Amino acid sequence: MTRPEWIMLGTFIVLLILWIGGSSLGVDATAAAFLGIAILLVTKVLTWKDMAANSSAWSTLIFFAVLVGMADHLKTLKVVEWIGASVASSVGGMAWPLAFGVLALVYFYIHYFFASNTAQIVALYAVFLGAAIAAGTPPMFAALFLGFAGNLIGGITHYASGPAGVYFGSGYIKTGEWFKLGFIASVVNIIIWGLIGTVWMFSLGYGR
Predict the structure, then answer these.
(1) Helical pair 79-90 and 55-76, crossing angle rounded to 10 deg
(2) Nearest to 103 by CA among 124, 82, 77
(3) Do both 41 and 85 map to the same domain?
(4) Buried b (16+ CB within 10 A) or exposed e, 178-189
(5) Helix %, strand %, coil % of the chain (to 5)
(6) Are residues 122 and 43 in the same domain?
(7) What residues make up the domain containing 139?
(8) HSE on the CB side for 103, CA within 13 Å?
(9) Tens digit of pLDDT for each residue in 28-79?
(10) What's this model's pTM, rounded to 2 decimal places?
(11) Inter-residue contact 50 to 40 (CB < 8 Å)
(12) Residue 197, number of CB atoms within 10 A of its CB
């Protein structure tokens, strides 16, 4: 391996350690990322011209910065929490399969307002899980189903998760095409998990 390759490998390992244990070490993920960039620039593995020429990376950065900022404001203003609480209260009195179906669909598609799986789970998972259990849904079934949904929502938009933004930044997929295919994939996922997944979880005894 060449010197730049060794430096790149070492930088990757350092960043991996900081991203995994950053909370324990008191190092923010953003600070760790800038540290990695600084190491590569100082050692001349990368030049500023190389970075400036990577237009797709800059586009992804700016795009996500705006979306994350908007999501933070929606959370600060408690708009999304209000929607979740309103839906949760509206299913009172329904039979639990119908109530949970409504809650699961809203929980899934409300992700159009989020730029991160984690942000939605932190803001709404407990609210929807509590509403589902209150409606009579078997607790373990509800917890697992909403947990699985928290992963399946990662591709419905080009800003739904970190990897989605990177793929979109490559420039091969247009916004309209992503929304179209993302919605189709979401319907397929809901059918699979809603039918086959429900039967499977009940067969494992999670429907009690």
Answers:
(1) 60
(2) 124
(3) no
(4) beeebeeebeeb
(5) 80, 0, 20
(6) no
(7) 57-204
(8) 31
(9) 777 888 888 889 889 988 888 877 776 666 766 776 676 667 766 777 777 7
(10) 0.70
(11) no
(12) 17
